[in-house]
Amino acid sequence: MSESMIQVTNEMFIPPEGHWELPERYRAIINPGGVGQPRDGDPRAAFMIYDTEAGFEFYRVPYAIEQTQEKIVEAGLPQYLAIRLAVGR
C-alpha cells in the first residue's frame, strides 16, 4: 500500500448525478457500488465514468427491473434478491 493511502478518513460522499471533480489535493478510492444492486433507495442502475481530463461523471439509468427479477427467480436465487431491486435496498 502506498504511503498516500495510509491515512484513511472513512469519509463517505454521495455525488449528485452528472459531472463531479475531485479537488487536486485529494486522493480517493471511488466505489459507486454494483451497477444493478444499489443500496441507497434509488432502484435505477448507477455507475461512474472517470476521464483524466474531464473528471468523474455519475450516472443513473433505468433498466428492466421486472425482467431482471424474473431471471433471478428462474436462476433459483433467493426471492429477497429479486424483491430488493425494486426498492434499491
Topology:
Elements: E1 18-20, E2 45-51, E3 55-61, H1 65-74, H2 79-87
Helix pairs in contact: 1-2
What report would you give on this structure?
With 89 residues, the chain is α+β, with helices and mostly antiparallel strands. The chain has one domain. 21% of the residues lie in helices and 19% in strands. The protein has 2 helices and 3 strands. A 3-stranded antiparallel β-sheet has the order 1-3-2, with no helix packed on it. The radius of gyration is 16 Å and the shape is elongated.
Keywords:
89 residues; alpha+beta; 2 helices; 21% helix
Briefly, what is this?
The protein has helices at residues 65-74, 79-87; strands at residues 18-20, 45-51, 55-61.
Number of domains: 1
| Structural class by sheet pairing and helices | alpha+beta
Average per-residue pLDDT, rounded, comes to 79
The Rg value, from CA coordinates, equals 16 Å
Within the largest sheet, what's the order of strands?
A: 1-3-2
How many beta-strand segments? 3
Largest sheet features: 3 strands, antiparallel
- Work out the helicity level: 10-25%
Oligomer: single chain
How far from one another are the termini?
32 Å
Shape: elongated
Given as residue ranges, the uncertain stretches (5+ residues, pLDDT < 50) are none
